[in-house]
């Protein structure tokens, strides 16, 4: 689990997102599967459908805890074979974080 220490704890979510996106470790620490940081890269650094250098706070939308849980459920149903949060103990892994978060963001491209 990642923890952050904020210099300005009263910052809004977009300021925090910008700090994460600007962090040199972002592609290696906050997005999986992890790219090889020593690999020669001929093109743009891509994770899923995103060019990482084009992600900005505006690339994300704020969602509720219920919407976050729904997105997880939809994602797991699309696995082959489908899975559930209970089978994978997802609630134990991230439940407290989702249920107590001040703000939750997801990339705008991932609407369920």
Task: Describe the model.
With 112 residues, this protein is an alpha+beta fold. The protein is 38% helix and 11% strand. It has 5 helices and 4 strands. The strands form 2 sheets. The protein has a two-stranded antiparallel ribbon with strand order 1-2. The longest helix is centred in the middle third of the chain and has 13 residues. The radius of gyration is 15 Å and the shape is globular. The two termini are 25 Å apart.
Trace the largest sheet across and list its strands. Answer: 1-2
- The helix content is 25-40%
Contiguous helical run count: 5
Straight-line distance between termini: 25 Å
Order of helices and strands: HHEEEHHHE
Quaternary class: single chain
| Portion in strands | 5-15%
Main sheet summary: 2 strands, antiparallel
Low-confidence stretches: none
Radius of gyration using CA atoms only: 15 Å
Please identify the structural class as seen in this structure.
Answer: alpha+beta
Average predicted confidence as pLDDT: 75
C-alpha geometry: globular
How many beta strands in the DSSP annotation?
4
Short description:
This protein is of the alpha+beta class. The protein is built from 5 helices and 4 strands, in the order H-H-E-E-E-H-H-H-E.
Kindly list the characteristics that best describe this protein.
single chain, 112 residues, alpha+beta, 5 helices, globular
């Amino acid at each position: 689990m990642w923890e952050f220490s904020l210099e300005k704890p009263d910052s809004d979510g977009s300021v925090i997102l910008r700090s994460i996106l600007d962090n040199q470790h972002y592609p290696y620490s906050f997005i999986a599967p992890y790219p090889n940081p020593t690999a020669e890269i001929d093109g743009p650094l891509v994770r899923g459908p995103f060019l990482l250098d084009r992600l900005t706070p505006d690339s994300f939308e704020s969602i509720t805890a219920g919407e976050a849980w729904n997105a997880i459920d939809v994602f797991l149903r699309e696995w082959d074979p489908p899975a559930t949060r209970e089978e994978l103990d997802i609630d134990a892994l991230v439940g407290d974080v989702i249920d107590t978060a001040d703000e939750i963001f997801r990339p705008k491209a991932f609407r369920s």
